Amino acid sequence: MNWTKEQYLSLVNELNHHCIRYYLLNDPVISDAEYDRLYRELILMEEVHPEWVVPDSPSQRIGFKVSSGRTIRHDKKMLSLDNVYSEDELKDFLNKVQRVYNGRIDWVVEPKIDGAAVSIIYEYGVLTAGVTRGDGLEGEDVTHNIRTIKSLPVKIDFKGRLVLRGEVFLSRQRFKELNEERGKAGEPLFANPRNAAAGTLKVLDPRIASDRGLGIFIYALDDGRQYGTHFEDLLWLNKLGFSVNPHIYLSKSEELMEYIKKIESLRKEMDYDLDGAVIKVNDYNVRDILGETIKYPRWAIAYKYEAEQVTTTLIDVVFQVGRTGIVTPVAILEPVEVSGSTVSRASLHNEDEIIRLDIKIGDRVFIEKSGEIIPKVVKTVPELRKGTEKSIIFPSSCPSCGAILKKEDAYWRCLNRHCPERVIGSIIHFASRDAMDIRGLGDKTVERFYKLGILKSITDIYLLKPGSIGHLDGFGELSEANLLESIHESKKREFYRFIYALGIDGVGIKMAQVLASHFKNIDNLVSADKEELKSIYGIGEEVANSIFGYFKDGNNLKMIDDFKRFGINMQYEQTTTSDILKGLNFLITGTLSKPRKYFEDLILKHGGNLLSGVSKNLNYLIVGENPGNKLEKARQLGIIIITEDEFKKKFGLGD
Ligand code: IVH
Q1: Which residue owns the Cα nearest ligand 1 atom 6?
Q2: Ligand 1 in contact with 421 (CB < 6 A)?
Q3: Is 350 exposed, middle or buried (0-12, 13-18, 19+ CB in 10 A)?
Q4: In sequence order, what DSSP letters do the residues of 110-160 get, joined into one string?
Q5: Which residue, by CA, sits nearest to atom 16 of ligand 1?
Q6: Among 170, 192, 301, 430, which residue has the fewest nearby CB atoms (within 10 Å)?
Q7: Per-residue pLDDT, 64
Q8: How far apart are alpha carbons 471 and 474 in whole angstroms?
Q9: CA 134–ligand 1 middle distance (angstroms)
Q10: Would the CB of 80 count as within 6 Å of ligand 1?
Q11: pLDDT tens track for 244-292
């Protein structure tokens, strides 16, 4: 290959520069497709020249799975913050500080990000460790996941040792998407972005963390201080390439409340949760004079904002059974306005939550809606009880089918595969848009058909005959014909959609795509062993067990046989269109193993473009035997030249 190491290093720098523009400055100068193109070029270079790979290459952000959580001791104890909840309490705090140090004090006011605290270490300019707070003395080694945070540089232009503290968070948008994916995959939802961020930091496979897209704000420099003050050090860190929250103010004490309120007013529009403001002494010498208690520094305090809460009455609690059998208690509330929407239901998560809240039917309750999609009950007001309130009894048997529930972790589960609610849920899932996309078979219709005995299982969908539903109220011959047509159409859906439609625990759409392209057909997938499953992108122990268990179950195998008989597609199609080559320009020269038209079609099918001649816009020249003068021209322009095999391997377009 005709690259030089200098070209490689300059590409690493260029990509890191774009990462900074995108993740740090929010001001990208190239499109995502262009970035992907450069990234793919980098990977190609690294495949050919593994000896060139440098630690700050963007490819090195995702390392290997770690086998278990290792602990690391913090150099200095990671303290927490004491809280105040009002201006008066803040004044008390400020007075106390001034009694110990009666000179002039500059304060820094910062948003208090609601995520997970980490300590991050750089040595010789390289990110060497990321550790959770843990008990303050030692935390979990989460370096493998910290490295996946795109707004955090893996290499910096500073050779001394740095110990930084920061807050890792998940944006509200990513949180919402993640919970949607988890819901569809039948996995328990994260209660809020903070739990999701803390949970993500601890996953063993960094590819999972990378996909989830964590963010970070650095809020302290503990070792390697450059200036005498916190504010100047934060500015310095920002210049070095660290993400420091832009809403940080240097203030005299009179303006403190102003800044605290200013940050609060930004709260709604931020894409991350913040639960208060942190007020810190700016000067490190003054901090030393003030000192700290065992738990908190005396030079800082958190001013906690109130979550938007309203009170209402708990009218009832119903227990819903999802398709995976998890029984979720749902609070039925007297309708009330909160954060701009009317709320009449709230999740109570699980039995432990009911016990923790000590809640009764008829109670006056506080509900809040912050980062969560579903509002939650935060507390009850026992003082207002009249004595007529009723205890909530978590059922011991399934509210839908009566089967005895089994406890798995914090959740009670109905294990009866014929449980009506579970069956209805799985038919709804099977027919849903991302799965088999059967138009006309939405939630209400499925419920109705189930109750009428028209659909008793997923496979019944394909046994529907003309005349079986056309006579029903609200249905006519036309809607029957349309439904039968979309059922017929659904047999041709891509293989991954079918895998997703099966509703295997832990298998969302992305995972289904990975399984489809890895196993190519249902027989390979059915016979996969656990080791093979675990070796695949993004699959951990738990999901591997779930998939393996699913295909060991005789009922599931029988269902798959039925689907085969109905003629449902269970084959991965290599020719399936994708946008894998989107934004890339190709040209072919010389003779390849198949007619040129075959490759041209392949490129177009996958979203690539074909150019008519060599120009600087060309991204890849594919060379066969006896290439023409295009090869020489491409060399002169420094275009990437690849063989047919390299092309197929690179983009996963093999036969
Ligand atoms: S300073 C010794 N600054 O809040 C001072 N903490 O409730 C340590 N947090 O454990 C903390 N944003 O996880 C500081 N701008 C900020 C923060 C912040 C969020 C978190 C941090 C800390 C917790 C205390």
Answers
A1: 112
A2: no
A3: buried
A4: EEEE-SEEEEEEEETTEEEEEEE-TTSSEEEB-HHHHTT-TTS-SB-S--S
A5: 112
A6: 192
A7: 67
A8: 9
A9: 14
A10: yes
A11: 999 999 998 888 999 999 999 888 788 898 889 999 999 999 999 999 9
